[in-house]
Amino acid sequence: MAPTVVSSWNDFDPLKHVIVGRADHTCIPPAEPATEAKVPEDSDMRGLWGPRPLETIEKANAQLDHLVSVLEARGVKVDRPELLQWNQAVHTPDFSTGTMFGCMPPRDVLLTVGKEILSAPMSFRCRYFEYLAYHSLMQRYFDEDPNFRWEQAPRPRLTDASYKAGYFDDITIEERLKRTASLNFVTTEHEPLFDAADVCRIGKDLFCQHGLTTNRRGMAWLQRHYAAHRVHAVNFPGDPYPIHIDATFVPLRPGLIINNPNRRLPEDQRRIFEANDWEIIDAAQPAHTEPPPLCYSSVWLSMNCLVLDHHTVCVEASETHQLEQLDKLGFEVIPVPFRDAYPFGGGLHCATADVYREGKCEDYFPHQISGTRIE
């Protein structure tokens, strides 16, 4: 097998090498400030923690394995994370929690920008050591690719100072919406925090969702770290649980983005796309009215698709409206059953992390508009 080459500048150039997660040993973590932000009040997960049922793990792994077979049949090289026993407590000098989480969604942890893969400083205490599942892969990439840069963002301490006390006490959906619209989130600006899945990579520009898992200080760190890039803060009023951008704002090919119609990008933030002839269209409605049991995510995982190249996209097989929309937009659409994997960390895009896509770092936004840049 050819040695690894690491390089990926966006989510739509031809995909040639990717990491696909695993569901083994995944746990529902105990309540903590960050998980309280993510679990809706009416969720069947409230009050539960510990290992997920074995039957659900087997079903999720079957669908993850099928995704691997689909990708390999298309000539994509696939790596998998190392299995760890997630059902063990986390103890640091600053906090402890009863279990870890899992490694189904590598997109949350690993940010690939060009020839670098960066482990993100996530705000979930239960995910503090999740990067270890990818450690042996990173070591292999380091040995095989002399140009690969293996990076770790500053490890957060995740003390109580990183969270607003009582943020979710007796809070209604209406109050959640008011707070998220006013950029009032559970995470403070005490230390840099971001999830890799909050970063939308479009060549020289990185669009970062300011929400429950990424703060302004995290985006400022990204701008300093990626000094040759332009980092923009975006937010999406209408989302009471703004966590991860890839079920809200999805670039499909140069010049085309689908946006969650319930969480539209504000007009002042759309100007940079309009000034550079990008079209933003409403994503199709989900085919389901409820997420699967024991699922963190919303029904809008329908738009969490995996783009293989400018003409080909993988979509969850039961999401008929999204399949039809992308077909009408001229894509070859590959239906991939994945709802059994949703509860383990998200959709098709969440379950993958880029290692190599063909293409180079393009400037898709030569006409810059003031207002969103992180300086």
Descriptive report:
- The radius of gyration is 19 Å and the shape is globular.
- The strands form 7 sheets. A 3-stranded mixed sheet has the order 4-1-19.
- The protein is of the alpha/beta class and about 375 residues long.
- Helices cover about 20% and strands about 20% of the residues.
- The chain has helices spanning about 35-40, 55-75, 105-110, 135-145, 175-180, 215-225, 265-275, 320-330, and strands at about 15-20, 25-30, 50, 75-80, 90, 95, 110-115, 115-120, 150, 200, 205-210, 230-235, 250-255, 255-260, 280, 305-310, 310-315, 330-335, 350-355.
- The mean pLDDT is about 90.
- It has one domain: L-arginine/glycine Amidinotransferase, Chain A (5-stranded Propeller).
- The termini are far apart.
Structural class: alpha/beta
| Number of separate domains | 1
Question: Mind summarizing the main beta sheet?
Answer: 3 strands, mixed
- Assigned CATH superfamily: L-arginine/glycine Amidinotransferase, Chain A
Q: Provide a count of the helices.
A: 8
Count of DSSP E strands? 19
Categorize the overall geometry. globular
Keywords, please?
single chain; 375 residues; L-arginine/glycine Amidinotransferase, Chain A; three-stranded mixed beta sheet; 19 strands
Topology:
Elements: E1 15-20, E2 27-28, H1 33-38, E3 50-51, H2 54-73, E4 77-79, E5 90-91, E6 96-97, H3 106-109, E7 110-113, E8 116-119, H4 135-144, E9 149-152, H5 173-181, E10 199-202, E11 205-209, H6 216-225, E12 230-234, E13 249-253, E14 256-259, H7 267-275, E15 279-282, E16 306-309, E17 312-316, H8 320-328, E18 332-336, E19 352-357
Parallel strand pairs: 1-4, 8-9, 11-12, 14-15, 17-18
Antiparallel strand pairs: 1-19, 2-3, 5-6, 7-8, 10-11, 13-14, 16-17
